[in-house]
Amino acid sequence: MRYELYYWPDIQGRGEFVRLALEQAGADYVDVARRSGRGMGVPALMRLLEGEAAHAPFAPPFLKAGDLVIAQTANILLFLGPRLHLVPEDEASRLWAHQLQLTIADLVAEVHDTHHPVSGSLYYREQKPEALRRATAFTGERLPKFLGYFEAVLARNPAGATHAVGDALSYVDLSLFQVVAGLRYAFPNAMHQIEPACPRLVALHAHVERLPRIAVYLASERRLPFNQNGIFRHYAELDAESP
Amino acid sequence: MRYELYYWPDIQGRGEFVRLALEQAGADYVDVARRSGRGMGVPALMRLLEGEAAHAPFAPPFLKAGDLVIAQTANILLFLGPRLHLVPEDEASRLWAHQLQLTIADLVAEVHDTHHPVSGSLYYREQKPEALRRATAFTGERLPKFLGYFEAVLARNPAGATHAVGDALSYVDLSLFQVVAGLRYAFPNAMHQIEPACPRLVALHAHVERLPRIAVYLASERRLPFNQNGIFRHYAELDAESP
Q1: Residues β-bridged to residue B29
Q2: A65, A1 contact by CB (below 8 A)
Q3: Which of A153, A159, A236, B57 could form a disulfide with A167 if both were Cys (CB 3.0 to 4.6 A apart)?
Q4: Is the CB of B95 less than 8 angstroms away from the CB of A133?
């Protein structure tokens, strides 16, 4: 099965959670909007997004797998998890993995809203006072709460704190890696303060970063750098104060 | 199977999407935090939320089904859908239903942030200027986009526009009913403007409202009224201007 991933070509964004799973599994996939040529590029993405298909998605990312078009990041991973052997087989574990992924999605949405608290249609510079208030609440309250939760999830895993779900790598581990990486880019001071309380999460990030296929991917041109157009953005004034 | 639903006792909130599915299916369930007595009430909810269980959730609502504790509204409906016969049997339809439910969840989060654009820890009165800007962007852009999308989903359903997924009632229909009901409470002027462009969605709301079990539920004390503590709140200044 050759998977087709559709996502904006210039940012990691939500597409990155899917890319990491495809890369770790060594899956055959095409990152459609980043390719040029017939049936490729952003026009191919827009055709599916704005088309009249019964199951047209609301927003990228979406995945084409044969006749299926699947949107919503966590839903794509729900679909891919078993096929890429990135989630345990029993229903309880799959629901748990998906629940964690949805909690990650909530965190990612809150990260986005630190720089766009009013509207995604306006530039950051048009909503800076609102962003400052929201980001202060985020780094002061929400971020420690989310990361503290994921740290507790690792600490309580009956199979050990190496993984979030069971005793093997899952797409949740890959997504938690991405969250830590993105937060370090966006909020280095806040993370400097919070990370000492989250040693298992920090260790999980380091573990995933060193997985052979992930290491190759991260060093490749397929891995876009973080930038000021993505979800994780660094605006110094939105970060916690330096220690 | 007796299900235990855990959600804040004084608001419809996200728990309502689960309640509607349980009610329509005639399921045996206990709304734990709304009951009193041994093992009931908010303390029972807090025990699970703040406990040390391996799968403790991040936030309500959550559902206890035997040994399983499942959180995240859309994940609960993913689990309940097949068991309550509120989703088709094939994988493609289930992924599609879940995808729509996750898009509904995104809309609900944006509704919440119209009155809490800075922080859920602050009162509305402490973030009124930010709320006004966010709500204006919401009613002017995001709400028409979301409702236009769901209208298109109904219009494009190969089985007809009566239902969102396939040719029978699903939990997605119940959730779309709740979205329309909540939006009418919160943003009557905006809905007055938008509804003429969404006749299928309006008809779906009316269809669900008249389902015998839903009608009984809505008339019962189990259905909490909308209020100013829930997700859908009516602040006249956040609504579109009256026509």
Answers
A1: B3
A2: yes
A3: A159
A4: no
Q: What are the backbone dihedrals phi and psi of residue A210, each rounded to the nearest 5 degrees, phi first?
A: -95, -5
User: Measured between beta carbons, which residues in chain A are less than 8 angstroms from residue B142?
Assistant: 119
Q: Which residues of chain B have a CB within 8 Å of the CB of A54? A: 156-158
CA distance B137 to B240: 10
Query: pLDDT tens-digit profile of B155-170?
Result: 999 999 999 999 999 9
Residues of B in contact with A122 (CB under 8 A): 137
Asked if B99's CB is within 8 angstroms of A56's CB, the reply is no
Pick from A184, A109, A102, A114: nearest CA to A149: A102
Residues B1-55 have pLDDT tens digits of: 899 999 999 999 999 999 999 999 999 999 999 999 999 999 999 999 999 999 9
- Amino acid code (one letter) for B84: L
Q: Has the ipTM of the complex gone over 0.95?
A: yes
Q: Choose among A68, A122, A137: nearest Cβ to B121.
A: A137
Q: How far apart are CA B210 and CA B215, in angstroms?
A: 6
Mutate to test the interface with B, among A64, A87, A95, A127 (most CBs of B within 10 A): A95
Searching chain A, which residue's CA lies closest to the CA of residue B102? Answer: A72
Which of A50-54, A236-240, B143-147, B171-175 bottoms out in mean pLDDT, i.e. has the lowest? A50-54
pLDDT tens sequence across A190-237: 999 999 999 999 999 999 999 999 999 999 999 999 999 999 999 999
Write the residue in B106, B121, B141 that is nearest to A141 by C-beta.
Answer: B121
Q: How far is A177 from chain B (nearest CA, A)?
A: 19
pLDDT of residue A233: 97
Confidence band, pLDDT 50/70/90 cuts, at residue A243:
confident
User: Which amino acid, B165?
Assistant: V
Please name the member of A75, A79, A113 whose beta carbon is closest to the beta carbon of B102: A75
Domains contained in chain A, CATH given: 91-212 (1.20.1050.10)
Two tokens, residue A39 = 């049936």
Contact A102 B127 (CB under 8 A): no
Question: Residue type for A148, please?
Answer: G
Quick check: B23 and B217 in contact, CB under 8 A?
Answer: yes
Distance from CA of B52 to the nearest CA of A (A): 7
